[in-house]
Design a protein that fits this description.
Blueprint lengths: L4 E7 L3 H12 L4 E4 L8 H4 L11 H4 L5 H5 L10 H14 L6 E2 L4 E7 L4 E6 L4 E9 L21 E4 L14 E5 L3 H10 L5 E6 L6 E2 L7 H8 L2 H7 L20 H13 L4 H4 L9 H18 L3 H7 L13 E2 L11 E5 L5 E5 L2 E4 L4 E3 L2 E4 L8 H4 L2 E3 L6 H7 L15 E3 L13 H21 L5 E3 L1 H16 L29 H13 L5 E3 L1
Parallel strand pairs: 1-2, 1-6, 2-3, 4-17, 6-18, 7-16, 8-9, 8-16, 9-12, 10-11
Antiparallel strand pairs: 4-5, 5-6, 13-14, 14-15, 19-20
Helix pairs in contact: 1-15, 15-17
The structure holds NADP nicotinamide-adenine-dinucleotide phosphate.
Length: about 525
Amino acid sequence: MAANKLDALIIGAGVAGLYQLHMLREQGLAVRAYDTASDVGGTWYWNRYPGARFDSEAYIYQYLFDEDLYRGWSWSERFPAQPEIERWLHYVADTLDLRRDIQFNTTIVSAHFDENTDRWTVTTGDGEVIDTQFLITCCGMLSAPMADLFPGQSEFSGEIFHTARWPKEGAELAGKRVGVIGNGATGIQVIQTIAGEVGDLTVFIRTPQYAIPMSNPTYSEQDVEAYKARFSELRDTLPHTFTGFEYDFEEEWSALTAEQRTERLERIYNEGSLRLWLASFGELFSDQQVSDEVSEFVREKMRARLDDPELFELLVPTDYGFGTHRVPLETNYLEVYHRENVHAVSVRNNPIARIVPEGILLEDGTLYELDVIVMATGFDAGTGALTRIDIRGRGGRSLTEDWSRDIRTTMGLMVEGYPNMLTTAVPLAPSAALCNMTTCLQQQTEWIAACIQHMNSNGLGIIEPTIAGQDAWVNHHDEIANATLVSKTNSWYMGSNVPGKPRRLLSYIGGVGAYRDATLKAAANGYEGFVLR
Ligand code: NAP
């Protein structure tokens, strides 16, 4: 097959793209992955800001399709930092010899479906044109940075960095006056890491965050052997839990006494993981009273770490429930505000008006003079990676326009009107946020590989969702989502961080195991909800 003619083109060489490439190559397909980055890694290539690290346990974040691949890599600690994670993905790419089929430094700018040939015409930023039967998007959930947010950014006389575009060579922060905008999972990691290094740190906080201390022991050889020995158990468990983590809900809040609830909360809190959020009590996501009580438990823990009641107001959330959006793990994040060189500024009622050459100007005219501005301002999640590409389906339909009206997918695996475009980490699947990403991405890429194999074995050339099939999935998704407290809280989970983005819970919240069963059942029933020919 000519170099510019493929069976399958994969956009992205991160966790999903690497495995997708491996599987389709094993099937003997002409397949190639493209990535804007200069090497593999996806999220773990781009997010090299100070303090970037896992908050999924490393040993569950690994691929589980090959025991040798799993055992061939050893982690140094429970929640390793970005450089180690990036090295792991290099190890995967090397072991599976993937780089020879990846084109780096290449951005896909358009993909148009040709109804005469039933194939996609894909164009790169360099003007290269590729003809492919299948277009597979492995672009990541959080890869379109919200980087251009404030008027005057280009006039700033110092340096501005978005955390997801942190320079490879690092940034010189020592002794400087640094401002951080944003205190989500990213901002928190940056703030706690650079506070001791910079001259002066000003954190601009619009919405305080619940914070749970991370327990991050380093691993001995015995620890590593112990988790590796659990490979089969992890492989058999992770795909079936509520969030793709190893732990799952154990008890119902309503079945416990007040003392038992406190005992459970204390014990789980002390584990120093995301378990308090993802696998303590299922009612946390739906029952206002449980949410109130667990939120107050976490608030008490936070207040106990702060020595100044004024900081309570700035740092402890009171107007939304614990876990109704992403909970970060942290290390001394709250204590950092006791340092003399660290200042928290609330921009809730006095927002950032613009960036000026000297620094950040608030609406009331207060100017914060700065040398460096760190934008930990998040992403256009789930949709942004694809809407920033000119993707056209049947009749020239534009995905950017479709999703600007309403965000709809069929199981997060396809979009009606876009034949042979298979998607991962897009809305209406757990991989759109509420899961251990590798668990969910493995499941989706395996579903896609099996689907393509089925088509090729049966002489089928086209798959696309039916309107009825897509409507049914969207309705099912909404029914579950709307019964939760998550859908009532503003955050990127609901798309509310992007002006004008249609409001819908991006992640499927029926559970990773349930989602997996639904997608496998659809396939087993002759790809119910899809048309193949
Ligand atoms: P984020 O959660 O969307 O946080 C963005 C922050 O920027 C928020 O504090 C937001 O305030 C603030 N912000 C945005 N626009 C602003 C404005 N105009 N003025 C003032 N503040 C503004 O983004 P993120 O922290 O990058 O995290 C995104 C996701 O990445 C996380 O939820 C997580 O899933 C993932 N992540 C994972 C890890 C990990 O696995 N270890 C680490 C980092 C991130 P508001 O809340 O008021 O909007």
